[in-house]
Amino acid sequence: MIWLLRFVLLFIIFFLLYLAVKFLFTSSRKLETARKQKRFLLIDNDDVRKNFMLTYKGSVFAGEKYMGSKDNTFDVVSILIWPEDSATLKGMVKDDFFYIDNKILEHYPNAEINWKSPVKEFLQQ
Question: Can you give the pTM of this predicted structure?
Answer without folding.
Answer: 0.77
